[in-house]
């Protein structure tokens, strides 16, 4: 669903500080209630520092999309022209590494149009399958991905600080 004032653009390197702050906040909003403050602090520092965000924005294998409402950042998605994954049957897999909306925008229909923008990046890379890992306890995101045509194809491990967690691997074919 298109909404007035909402637009999507590719992030540039100069977006790294704003992206870092936003990514930390939405990750914390999503997972702080189900994890220890210590594990969260370790992961947030490791994954979302401005330097790490800048390095990812400079990485030619990645594209980061930003969704803005009247110029305010409300969502980001990171795509990786990925290596093969054992659970993903694809000639040219593309990983959706991150897909996060500000909580105020959940349930308002913009996630679906943002996913369409992400698929567009993967298609432009000639990808044939879009895949992702999602925490097995993140039922809302799994439901959203299922609505978007993703199917469960496997599992993988994810470390949040000292906590070994189990991700569901999901994938969907990219049709033209
Ligand atoms: C995942 C995300 C992008 C989905 O966007 P959204 O606008 O919330 O998605 P939608 O409202 O279209 O769909 C969510 C679905 O989950 C359902 N849902 C909500 N809470 C749920 C819960 N606790 N358990 C199961 N389903 C739930 C909703 O009812 C809805 O399904 P329905 O349309 O059949 O009623 C967004 O919620 C988000 O950014 N979450 C935080 C970040 C995150 O988890 N990202 C994914 C990391 S892999």
SSE order and pairing:
Layout: E1 6-10, H1 16-31, H2 37-47, H3 50-58, E2 62-69, E3 72-81, E4 93-101, H4 110-124, E5 129-135, H5 139-147, E6 151-160, E7 163-173
Parallel strand pairs: 4-5
Antiparallel strand pairs: 1-2, 2-3, 3-4, 5-7, 6-7
The structure holds coenzyme A (COA).
The site of coenzyme A has 15 residues, from strand 4 and helix 5.
* CATH T-level fold name: Aminopeptidase
Placed side by side, the strands forming the largest sheet appear as: 1-2-3-4-5-7-6
Q: Could you name the CATH class? A: Alpha Beta
Report the strand count.
Answer: 7
The end-to-end distance, rounded to whole angstroms, is 20 Å
Uncertain runs with pLDDT below 50, 5 residues or more? none
3D shape: globular
Provide key terms for this protein.
single chain; binds coenzyme A; 5 helices; 34% helix; alpha+beta; 176 residues; 7 strands; Aminopeptidase
Walkthrough of the structure:
The structure is a single chain. The chain has 176 residues and is of the alpha+beta class. The chain has a single domain, classed as Aminopeptidase, CATH 3.40.630. 34% of the residues lie in helices and 34% in strands. A seven-stranded mixed beta sheet has the order 1-2-3-4-5-7-6, sandwiched between helices. Helix 1 crosses helix 3. The longest helix has 16 residues. The radius of gyration is 15 Å and the shape is globular. The model has no long low-confidence stretch (mean pLDDT 96). The structure holds coenzyme A. The site of coenzyme A has 15 residues, from strand 4 and helix 5.
């Amino acid at each position: 669903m298109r909404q007035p004032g909402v637009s999507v653009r590719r992030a540039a390197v100069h977006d790294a500080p704003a992206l870092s702050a936003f990514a930390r906040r939405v990750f914390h909003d999503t997972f702080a209630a189900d994890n220890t403050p210590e594990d969260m602090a370790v992961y947030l520092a490791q994954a979302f520092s401005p330097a790490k965000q800048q390095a990812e924005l400079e990485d030619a294998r990645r594209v980061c999309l930003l969704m803005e409402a009247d110029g305010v950042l409300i969502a980001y998605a990171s795509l990786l022209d990925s290596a093969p994954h054992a659970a993903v049957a694809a000639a040219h897999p593309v990983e959706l590494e991150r897909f996060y909306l500000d909580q105020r925008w959940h349930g308002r229909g913009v996630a679906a149009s943002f996913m369409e923008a992400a698929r567009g990046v993967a298609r432009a890379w000639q990808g044939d399958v879009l895949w992702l890992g999602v925490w097995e306890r993140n039922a809302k995101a799994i439901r959203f991905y299922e609505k978007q045509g993703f199917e469960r194809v496997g599992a993988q491990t994810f470390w949040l600080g000292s906590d070994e967690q189990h991700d569901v691997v999901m994938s969907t074919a990219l049709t033209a």
